[in-house]
């Protein structure tokens, strides 16, 4: 084991060109370093490349050129299977719409997280209850998601994202469907997770959200600028 933990993300000269006619250069020569424990907000207008960046960081899309190290592992050289395993091990995803299954309980939804390696059922339930405790949802484990407020649903989705103890939480407009009270609750939760050492990257167009992050990075026409 190296005695220094590698940075969580190192992008070097990453470009993503969609081969349309004419081609779209959605990411242009992007460099980005995210260290363990960083809390980074990505801000930028519609069409600027935020989803492309998130898909690239989340190993859902591949750069056309450049290098992407995730936890010290060069991902661009990996095959699909290895990328899927790495994603399951290192990354938790949080989306604007919570993607909870309506006919399953809160605990079951969290247990259904796609975690690489799989755990025995008993172990998964214990992990799910721990994750729900971490997000302050222990009192609702047997509820169906339909009985929860939007903010509570997002907290359950965050618990699901934490099931595999990821190195990195990638969040795409996590408060986009929430009123200001629920937004505040989710941001407080992010602060708590950050204080515990989790690395967070949040795509947002809400100033209130980006103001909480330690770093703000603006994306415009596929070009990143640190603020
Ligand atoms: N599969 C694709 N093929 C061709 N062009 C694409 C594709 N996906 C995205 N684009 C283009 O790449 C650019 C960046 O798109 P992207 O979805 O990353 O922007 P965004 O910042 O996430 O936008 P929004 O905030 O509206 O979701 C846009 O010009 C978009 O039209």
UniProtKB/TrEMBL annotation:
Keywords of the record: ATP-binding, Nucleotide-binding, Transport
Bilayer-crossing regions: none
- Where is the ABC transporter domain positioned along the sequence? 9-227
Q: InterPro entries per the record? A: AAA+_ATPase, ABC_transporter-like_ATP-bd, ABC_transporter-like_CS, ABC_transpr_LolD-like, MacB-like_ATP-bd, P-loop_NTPase
User: What Gene Ontology molecular-function terms does this entry list?
Assistant: ATP binding
The record's Pfam families line, in alphabetical order, gives:
ABC_tran (PF00005)
Question: Which protein are we looking at?
Answer: ABC transporter ATP-binding protein
Q: Species lineage, top-down?
A: Bacteria, Bacillati, Actinomycetota, Actinomycetes, Streptosporangiales
